[in-house]
Amino acid sequence: MMGMQTIPEYSSAELLEKMDSMGFSKELRESFRKCIDFHTYPAPGMLIGVFMVDYALSLIGKKPDDKIFVTSETPKCLPDPPQVIMHATTGNHRLRVLPIGKFAITLTPFSAKDAAEGVRIYVDRKKLEKYPIIAAWYDNTPSFKPATMKKQLVDDILTAGRAILSYERVKMNVTHKKKWTSVTCPSCGEQVPENMMEGTHCAGCGSLAYYERME
Ligand SMILES: [Zn+2]
Predict the structure, then answer these.
(1) Measured in angstroms, how far is the CA atom of residue 206 from the centroid of ligand 1?
(2) Where are the beta strands (DSSP E) in 35-163?
(3) Which residues lie near ion ligand 1 (Cβ < 5 Å)?
(4) What CATH number does domain 12-173 carry, 3.40.50.720, 3.40.50.150, 3.40.50.12280, 3.30.1330.130?
(5) Would the pTM count as exceeding 0.85?
(6) pLDDT tens by residue, 24-39
(7) CA 189–ligand 1 middle distance (angstroms)
(8) From the CA of 131, how far away is ligand 1's center (Å)?
């Protein structure tokens, strides 16, 4: 009989116990607990993201419930911690996800001006030299063996904390809400904001078409 192969991995309960023994603050531990629950499992990148949000908030001197705009430079893992910890979501326009492919996140407190100042935090590849297992996982190299290294990877991420991160102060342009009018797409007959039309049709009938109607 083929047995289920058990990949040595921490359960959420084991991880939280580990954080307690490592002396994590109540707030940080609670952030990890909520993020693991939301993400449905303790993905390494998501764990690093919790440290990133925690670090970024302290650098800009803000609290999680302050009005802060977040930009994640990857769709992988990193958009989840700001959603859970700060309630910055794509739906409330406080979270933007850019497909750049970098493990970096920018936090900028809301500004009524045309530019906002904040902080960009990123995983610093040079700082990973001290953590070869995190480096192997981060570089997605064959030397990272999930079957035997998963627990050690998580151990190293929790031990490293902010030590693998660097930051820079940044400013960026802010687009404020603009007035818009609704138009009917002549192709599908549905309503869309006029500024989202692609010439004579909507994006759903054009560059963003993603389905075929079934008979
Ligand atoms: Zn259309």
Answers:
(1) 7
(2) 68-72, 95-97, 104-109, 115-123
(3) 185, 187-188, 202, 205
(4) 3.30.1330.130
(5) yes
(6) 999 999 999 999 999 9
(7) 6
(8) 51
